[in-house]
Amino acid sequence: MERSRTRGNISTVNLLIGVIGSCEGEDGSELNRWLDLVKKWELRFTCYTYKCLLQAYLRLSDSNKAFGVYREIRTHGYKLDIFSYNKLIDALAKDEKVEQASTVFKDMQKRHCKPDVYTYTILIRMNGKNGKPNESLVLFQEMLSNGCSPNLIAYNTMIQSLSKSRMVEKTLFLFSKMIENNCRPNELTYSFILHVLAAEGQLHRLNEVVEVSKRFMNKSTYAYLVRTLNKLGHSSEAHRLFCSMWNFHDKGDRDAYLSMLESLCTSGKLIEAIDLLSKMHEKGIGTDTFMYNVIFSALGKLKQIPHIHDLYEKMKQSGVPPDLFTYNILISSFGRAGRVAEAVEIFEELESSNWKPDIVSYNSLINCLGKNGDVDEAHMRFIEMQEKGMNPDVVTYSTLIECFGKTEKVEMACQMFDAMLAEGCFPNIITYNILLDCLERCGRTVEAVDLFAKLKEQGLVPDSITYSILDRLRSGGKQTGRVRRQNPVTGWVVSPLR
After folding, report:
1. pTM of the entire structure?
2. Which residues of 288-315 are buried (b: 16+ CB within 10 A; e: fewer)?
């Protein structure tokens, strides 16, 4: 049309503007082109043209130009429909143009366009984000006065605004009104309430929330609350709520039970965790390998070997098969407690199972053997894993270097370090600290200084342990105390359970 120099009409322009912004990546250049045609053809904008232009700028996420078009619409005395008003207010609110959004809202009321629930929800959210909960409340009350029935989104938006400002009483009051008006809360509703109660130290009032909304409470809701409380670190409240769920629902929710199991293990309540595991079948939940592994891991960290034995037997009797992670946990747990024979027995059981030992399995066994005095056997297992095609990692080498160092086999420790480099396995600061400590204890000062230089060349950053060893080198004193920070739970250089 432009090439043929045929003069178009405003309807044509309206159609062209109407499709602007419907495709991703548009930058508005096409829109400018059509607007230039309007000037070139000396056309006059109609009310519909302005509406199309307003929507085009909104689709292009340009709230500034959209507001400019709105001002022209107002100047010409044209009216917008509720859909256009809401779209414009929403765009301005999202771009934090509070004053302009408020102006449009007042204008729509003056022009007898009645705001709906969506209009009020946008403005309530905007004020809530700007820390103005009282303004949000005024809007919410106005919405009710104008005969608008709040929906779930409106209630959640208002509750979020109140909870963000830690207004507990008003949050709970509005929640009760929500239930009174037969509006079912969802997980987001409970999330806002939980966070404000936790922030204000009033989680004991969760009972009020549950009681008020009990006709809407189901096992999924209980499960969500239990999981969320555990994630927030409130295990006691989670356990109390979990007990309510247990008493009032015949069928359990696996996620809630697993969350409670993990929480009990984390807080050291292992007897309760084992008891819960044994009772899950009463609520129609089958136990699985992962659940057992959660408890095995916690028992191992606390060296509760008798309980590990009992639970492992119960696991096998119930027909739940151990997986590779189960075996690795058991090997490391027995090793941590100095039960070498049992660790070896589990390793051999692993070898004869459908699973095969991985590098973590070997690292666990090597650490167990070496730390309990059987360095030669640990070295043999190291050779065995290489023969099976496994590449030892920094944990394997660091463990053996430490074991050789502690048994005065300094040459073997140095050879292991050299072999590590030759295999392309780069030592970390822990490895260097282990060997530096070994060399310093044996009085091999020159080699220790050379090793420190190599550490720097590799680009590693010395830590407090490194400097402690260097201080001993400078003073010439031989301390027999441990210089290496040891994990208070595992006692390992680097935990093999990764």
Report:
1. 0.69
2. eeebbbbbbbbbbbbbbbebbeebbeeb
